[in-house]
Amino acid sequence: MQNRVLLIEDDDELRELLARYLTNQGFTVREAANGRDGLALALGQDCDIVVLDIMLPDINGLDVLRELRGQTHLPVILLTARGDETDRIVGFEVGADDYIPKPCNPRELVARLQALLRRIAWDQKSDVDATRTYGDLRVEPGQRRIYQDDAPLELTATEYEVLQVLLAHAGSVVRKTDLMQWALGRRLEAYDRTLDMHISNLRKKLGNDDPLRIETVRGLGYSYRVPAA
Asked: Most buried residue, 42, 164, 168, 188, by CB count within 10 Å?
């Protein structure tokens, strides 16, 4: 499993603490104390995953994320202020894969990193010829890409995971608890809107002309309906 982490955090004490802990857990850690340096390292392909603080001294973390999403599909976990739901929502809209509120527990950060990297590594080991088609969508696990009418959907790593789980169970209801575990690798907690935001983003990217393509089944979860030919 690849484990090169880029930690973009301006708080020297927190960054050093997290870097030491991640290193002790087997990660190779690159550090950046501001957005410009972090962006340059990320675009230089020196990492497999990014941990990005929103509050940075030069470039806002959300702007760094926007720049990244314009050029790369690197998975990104945001560090956000505890209780600041607005930043989390905007972060998901821009393309974050997950978030952890600050001050964060280093063990939780490791668990989130490992879960996300594990899912990516699993797909990369899949048979590159195991293409699956669902109406106008085509899933190519070896590339970790999903195409709509032969055009690639620009999905984050987590959006890809959520959609491919829904597609694998097309026509059936996938409970939110199961979807959270299978796609994000963690348990669904009360008031956690992470999954809802990923579903909202997927609906936008798939086109709002078919609102029932991903149907909300109240009290249960979500169901993907393959559009009629």
From this structure: 42
Q: Which tokens hold the place of 145? A: 């890409």
Domain boundaries, the chain: 4-123, 126-224
| Confidence check: pLDDT of 86 > 90 | no
- Which residue type does 72 have? T
Vertex 209 angle, CA 208 and 215, to 5°? 65
pTM here?
A: 0.78
CATH number (1.20.1250.20, 1.10.1740.10, 3.30.1490.180, 1.10.10.10) of 126-224 reads 1.10.10.10
Q: In the predicted model, is pLDDT for residue 125 greater than 60? A: no
28-32 sheet: strands from edge to edge: 28-32, 4-8, 49-53, 76-81, 98-102
pLDDT of 123 > 80? The answer is no
Residue 105 has which token pair? Answer: 């527990």
Main-chain phi, psi angles of 196, to 5 degrees = -60, -40
Return the percentage of the chain with pLDDT > 70, whole number. 92
Band of the pLDDT at 103, cuts 50, 70, 90? confident
Q: Which of 92, 107, 145, 121 is nearest to 22 (CA)?
A: 107
Q: Are the CB atoms for 222 and 166 separated by under 8 Å? A: yes
Q: Which residue has the tokens 């026509």?
A: 171
What tokens appear for 176 in the block? 């939110």
Mean of the per-residue pLDDT values of the chain: 88
Is 205 in contact with 195 (CB distance < 8 Å)?
no
